[in-house]
Specification:
This protein has one domain (11-457): Amino acid/polyamine transporter I. 76% of the residues lie in helices and 0% in strands. The protein contains 19 helices and no strands. The protein is globular. The relative contact order is 0.20.
Length: 462
């Protein structure tokens, strides 16, 4: 018996779901960190150029491949491009599987800090508490890590279990407006701080003398990674788009929303950093430092209305993570449904359980567990978590993305791709010829530069 395939109920529902997939810890965590490391303005401008030249064309390519076939990543590539291309789809499914297995661990940290901030709001911030020590204690506690990861995994499975309309779209419609509201509230508070003017200048005033070649490469890399590209997520989501919904309009809105949220996150964090004496010198050790070490204490010592915003911020982090984890699980689940004929309910539970086995490995790699905490495959990366993150970020996503650009630009027929992008719903600003040029030449060259940087120059995008 074939599982009935769902569809998004409207363009707005799809845009919210896909935006939720793109908006994740990369927006709230990684982008502010790499913007800080690369001195702001010029890096941000370069990132905006890259996201328009690379991210947007690939977003459209993945969505059109999915919609043209109405199948998951493997079946979509087989039908849209050719039977051999199913291997690329399977690579994307595997990428989503591995990424979800350790992403859930980080997402679980948001639950821990939400509980902590609620306690601090109710009882006051403890005198003498070192938030760095607190972070170290919680990640090295195996039982706590497993409980938090299991909780987030169960929430993810619960959403995907109910399908596209009743699960993913419904949650996106509910949570994305809440996420936007919390962000705006935090931005309003941040702009009241004395460092907000310096933060605005840091983000939006370019100084190209401070932008190094490595920064350009990092802007290029993040413009690709931030949109959930290269792992089958947008192909899968694209397979649920109705024929009367515009891929071009939806792609543009998703990219704009994702970018705006990343910039707002920067303004919030940098306003805090520039308002606290000596904080600028303390930030920069790691992405973890901003989100889980520096900010928790600052909410209760420096940020206006911080006792309210502290818990709300970690609600924001949890919502952003959940809208990403449910898209990752959908990549794996839809493959099992389409290719193996298993019902959605059974496929979701099966895939969720399989992913959680590897989540256990990632969660325990922070504790003193033999092999899991000492695994060293890549230079400078120790433990299962860091190894998986490095492999996905530096190898799986770029190679998957390069494969998509080649498939859509060189092997999918012009007639088929044009039919998906150009119709009565296509906005006047879109040029199919320009898109085809960027997907055939610019995007492959850009992603090849990422792969070359990883292979020969030791650049690390994890």
């Amino acid at each position: 018996m074939t599982e009935q395939r769902g569809n998004w109920t409207s363009s707005a529902g799809f845009v919210l779901a896909a935006t939720g997939s793109a908006i994740g810890l990369g927006n709230l965590w990684k982008f502010p960190f790499i913007t800080w490391e690369n001195n702001g303005g010029a890096f941000v401008l370069m990132y905006l150029v890259c996201i328009m030249a690379v991210g947007l064309p690939i977003m459209m390519a993945e969505l059109l491949i999915g919609r043209s076939s109405q199948k998951s990543a493997v079946g979509a590539l087989k039908e849209a491009v050719g039977p051999a291309w199913g291997v690329l789809g399977l690579w994307g499914v595997l990428c989503g599987f591995i990424l979800l297995s350790y992403y859930t661990v980080i997402a679980g940290w948001s639950l821990f800090y939400f509980a902590q901030t609620v306690g601090w709001t109710a009882g006051g911030f403890p005198d003498g508490l070192q938030t760095g020590d607190l972070f170290g204690e919680q990640v090295s506690n195996p039982g706590l890590q497993l409980v938090m990861s299991l909780g987030f995994s169960m929430a993810t499975v619960g959403v995907v279990y109910f399908g596209v309309q009743k699960g993913i779209e419904r949650i996106a419609r509910l949570f994305l407006p809440i996420l936007f509201g919390i962000l705006l509230l935090m931005l309003f508070s941040a702009l009241q701080m004395e460092g907000s003017g310096e933060a605005l200048a840091f983000v939006f005033r370019p100084s190209f003398s401070e932008l190094e070649p490595a920064g350009i490469l990092e802007a290029l890399g993040h413009s690709f990674f931030t949109l959930s590209l290269g792992m089958g997520a947008m192909i899968t989501y694209g397979s649920y788009i109705a024929k009367d919904q515009s891929i071009v309009k939806a792609s543009a809105v998703i990219v704009v929303l994702d970018t705006v949220i990343a910039l707002v996150a920067c303004l919030i964090m940098f306003s805090v950093i520039f308002s606290v004496a000596g904080m600028a010198e303390q930030v920069g050790g790691s992405t973890v430092g901003m989100l889980f070490i520096s900010l928790p204490q600052l909410f209760y010592t420096e940020v206006p209305f911080g006792t309210i915003l502290g818990p709300l911020f970690y609600v924001l982090v949890a919502l952003a993570a959940l809208t990403s984890t449910m898209s990752l699980l959908e990549v794996v689940t839809s493959y099992v449904i389409d290719e193996h004929g298993i019902s959605r309910h059974n496929a979701t539970i099966l895939c969720g359980a399989a992913v959680f086995v590897f989540t256990i490995f990632a969660a325990l790699s922070f504790a003193d567990v033999p092999v899991l905490s000492t695994l060293a495959v890549f230079e400078g990366k120790t433990g299962w978590f860091e190894t998986a993150d490095h492999f996905v970020s530096n190898w799986m996503l770029p190679t998957g993305g390069l494969g998509i650009t080649i498939a859509a630009g060189w092997f999918m027929t012009r007639e088929k791709s044009e039919a998906e992008l150009v119709d009565a719903t296509t906005p006047a600003w879109f040029s199919y010829g320009a898109w085809r040029f960027f997907i055939r030449f610019v995007a492959p060259a850009a992603i090849s530069a990422i792969i070359i940087a990883v292979m020969f120059f030791g650049v690390d995008f994890s």
